[in-house]
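Chapter review: from sequence to fold.
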Amino acid sequence: MTESSGTPAPANTERSPRRGMCAAVLSLEAIALGLTTPVMITIADVDTSTAVSIGLGLAVVCLLLAGMLRAEWAYVAGYVVQVAAIGLGFVVPVMFGLGAIFAALWAGADLLGRKIERERAAAWAAYRAEQQ
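The token string follows.
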């Protein structure tokens, strides 16, 4: 985190806490959504191809989005995935609750990550102003 001269590295070379937290939520959500596939097949009597395309499709979307969080649009897409996960509750009722939990985790990671990045940028600005 420090340059060879001993001064702290600029803020843009550090990892984004927002991206890291949101990627973690999406990765865990991918597991939960993937596990809805056998539940849809055995308990909800959903056709196998439909269940696989919905359950595993949403899981793959979560994993792809976790890798694309460098772009701002991916965070908006993450909120869309949260709505889809809650909507899955119409097929598997427990997903109403589980989807809401993941939506809260997603919103918390996004908002807290934004706050940390703002405060980090302000601290760097104050540090640079102090050094001049």
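Two observations follow directly from the output. DSSP finds four helices and no strands in the chain. The mean pLDDT is 91.
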